[in-house]
Amino acid sequence: MTLVIAAFVLWALAWWCNVWLANGPARDMAATRLAVPLIFGLTLLAIWELVVRGLGVSMVILPAPSVIAEKISTSLPILWTDFVQTFIKGALSGYLIGIAAAFVVAVIADRSSFLRRGLLPVGSFVAAMPIVGTAPILVMWYGFDWQSKAAVVVVMVFFPMLVNITAGLQETTNMQRDQMKTWAASYWQGFWKMRLPAAMPFIFNGLKISSTLALIGAIVAEFFGSPISGMGFRISTSVGQLALDMVWAEIFVAALSGSVFYGVIALIERGVTFWHPSQRK
């Protein structure tokens, strides 16, 4: 019970510290903006540890962060193998293929209003299909290795990217497009010099959305058939063995890799779309 009381005291102190930092004179400094979420995250981990230890919660229900950290440190080769199988081979390859395919189809649809009007409703329909229904079918088509997981990711990524790229290419006004024509610019000159740069905020919005969908799709697809490695495979087998520390270790690796992937895309977006109002402070 003492540990539980300590958890509440720690929460109150951390809350006061974060409020002071967020509203204090240094609130606009980069170090302060980094410190606030860092303190909040470390406080949650500490409270998690204290409450689990204080209440004697079984590891089968919820392991303490220290137990999860120990499992991570002793299972690095397994976690790395699962990361490569799921993220590099399945999620990243399917992500790149889906983006490339969506870009090509969006450019083709941009030149045909009939195709554009026909594809977008179909895209919305396919995007609404549950992954738990499409994943088993694609696993049966492409086998149990990473190729089937990449196929699931392609399906999940393709239509959100198609919608965003198509909308972005329509961002320029008729007056702007007519101005390019008065300068005798060809379609592709107008595309590369005006329409594609104007579409970048939409494209990066789709890239960021798809980065999370890709990892989710690859992990879920592994529940329906996988070799003896992969995050989804490890999670499903560890749950059956009541090894919840390994389950949380895989969840940590998945969350970390997904966050880093999203952050890299956001950094690239800041450099490419520096001119957009959303990037101004």
In short:
This protein has eleven helices and no strands. It is mainly alpha-helical and 281 residues long.
Notes on the protein architecture:
The protein is mostly helical and 281 residues long. It folds into two domains: 2-57; 72-279, MetI-like fold. It has helices at residues 2-23, 30-55, 65-74, 76-110, 113-127, 131-142, 146-169, 174-182, 187-222, 231-240, 244-272. α4 packs parallel to α7 (146-169), α9 (187-222) runs antiparallel to α11 (244-272) and α10 runs antiparallel to α11. The longest helix has 36 residues, at 187-222.
Number of domains: 2
CATH class of the largest domain: Mainly Alpha
Strand segment tally: 0
Arithmetic mean pLDDT = 82
- From the N-terminal CA to the C-terminal CA, the straight-line distance is 46 Å
The CATH architecture of the largest domain comes to Orthogonal Bundle
Helical amount: over 70%
How large a portion of the residues is in β-strands, by DSSP E?
A: under 5%
**CATH fold name of the largest domain, please?**
MetI-like fold
The CATH homologous superfamily of the largest domain is termed: MetI-like
| Cα Rg | 23 Å
Topology pattern, helix = H, strand = E:
HHHHHHHHHHH
Structural class given helices, strands, pairing?
A: mainly alpha
Oligomer: single chain
Number of helices: 11
Which spans of ≥5 residues are poorly predicted at pLDDT below 50? none
Biggest sheet record: none
3D shape: flat
